[in-house]
Amino acid sequence: MESAEKRKRMLSGIKPSGQLTLGNYIGALRNFVRYQDDYEMIVFIANLHCITVYQDPQELKKNLRDAVALYLACGLDPQRATIFLQSDVLEHAQLGFIMNCNSYQGELNRMTQYKDKVAKGETNITVGLYTYPCLMAADILLYDADYVPVGEDQKQHVELTRDLAQRFNHRYGDTFRVPEPVVPQVGARIMSLSDPSKKMSKSDKGDKGCIYLLEDVRSARKKIMSAVTDMEACVRFDPQDQPGISNLLTIMSSLSGEPIEQLVQRFAGKGYGEFKSAVADVVCAQLSEIQARYQQVIQSGMIEQTLQQGSEQARRLARRKLDKVQRKIGMEFRKK
Ligand code: ATP
Ligand code: LTN
User: Fold this and answer.
1) In angstroms, what is the span from residue 167 Cα to ligand 2's centroid?
2) What is the predicted pLDDT for the residue at 205?
3) Taking a C-beta distance cutoff of 8 angstroms, is the pair 184, 190 a contact?
4) 3-state SS string over 273-290?
5) pLDDT, the chain, mean
6) What pLDDT sits at residue 2?
């Protein structure tokens, strides 16, 4: 039965720039699944965002398919959530350009992801990567999202989206809903197992620090057992002085639901080997469950059907919003 009160809308996306990781799962994906009962959920695969960095076409195709399969395997339900491929809804790119024209270079220069790449001396930064936050704003504003669940690294982009929405509304009259980021309290930034000062990242290829959702569980266990820790020999939550152990505590707590303080008590006086082994048990159990469902999804034909249905639903909403935007700007004068 339809509830009389209109549900708030939530929207998010993940770039298929590699295989999805445990960081993506804890920081984003599993929250989409949790929220789908309480919100009108729209999730997409950001395949425009991912080509801001060169992708091997064969690998990209596989990653795309796997990303959709993993959305479903992790529990997103196409009956409750709208799931689609960003490039199937052309309005994203169109509103993205309009957002480019309403953003300033100074604002984009301040985006941490871009600044970090410049600071590292990367020279082949594409124009697409530079303007990517404008496309992300378009993704969100096209659907009048109330909330955007993301990991810590994306909060700044949602804040820029808010600024752009407010600026547009001020210039052209009320057009966009101003969204709010939703960042999980635990697990918003899972760190690399091999360098706990860095975010666990799917584009760090060949890194021992990253656990992939479709990775062999034996390999995942090995990575956890050899995760970088410290010489303190004490399981304590102290991200500053014991970043490796704190990261493992965060991973375990987010997957098991057991509060960090309780885990610290449970492992008081125990060695790192025993603690790591317990973390590995929890991670491997979660991976096994996801991988079993992934196999079912891959064989079911659900992927095509989900994307077809999702893109039709999304297109309807996006078209209406884009028409409104173009009329407000004065760049369209016909009634549609
Ligand atoms: P890359 O590693 O290629 O930079 P990414 O995984 O950071 O990519 P996305 O795939 O777009 O980027 O991220 C999807 C979602 O997962 C975002 O909400 C992001 O904040 C979250 N996320 C990514 N990595 C982590 C992490 N290590 N910990 C927590 N959340 C994360
Ligand atoms: N930029 C995000 C992925 C992304 C996204 C979005 C997230 C693209 N569009 C809209 C939330 C809402 C990233 O790289 N992690």
Assistant:
1) 21
2) 66
3) no
4) HHHHHHHHHHHHHHHHHH
5) 95
6) 43
Q: Is 94 helix (H, G, I), strand (E, B) or coil?
A: helix
Q: Please return the burial class of 150, using the count of CB atoms within 10 Å of its CB with bins 0-12, 13-18 and 19+.
A: buried
Residue 315 has pLDDT above 60, yes or no: yes
Taking CA atoms, 119 is separated from 24, 106, 261, 285, in Å, by: 25, 16, 37, 39
- Structure token digits, residue 10: 């939530």
Q: pTM of whole model > 0.85? A: yes
The pair phi, psi for residue 147, each rounded to 5°, is -130, 150
Ligand 2 near 12 CB (within 6 A): yes
Phi first, then psi, for residue 128 (nearest 5°) are -60, -40
Q: Of 52-56, 160-164, 199-203, where does mean pLDDT reach its minimum?
A: 199-203
Asked whether 192 and 224 are in contact (CB, 8 A), the reply is no
- pLDDT tier for residue 123 given thresholds of 50, 70 and 90: confident
Cα-to-chain-centroid distance, residue 155: 11
Ligand 1 centroid from CA 329, angstroms: 34
Ligand 1, residue 152: give the atom nearest the CA.
Answer: 20
Decide the pairing of beta strands 81-85 and 40-45. Answer: parallel
Cα–Cα distance for residue pair 19/143, rounded to 1 Å: 27
Cα–Cα distance, 194 to 196 (Å, whole number): 6
Mean pLDDT, residues 250-278 = 97
Ligand 2 geometric centre to CA of 196 (Å): 23
> Which ligand lies nearest the alpha carbon of 31?
1
Q: In the chain, pLDDT over 70 holds for what percent of residues?
A: 98
**CB of 98 closer than 8 Å to CB of 325:** yes
Active site residues: 117, 199, 202
Query: What average pLDDT does this structure show over 290-307?
Result: 96
Ligand closest to 12 (CA) is 2
Q: Is the pLDDT of residue 64 over 90?
A: yes
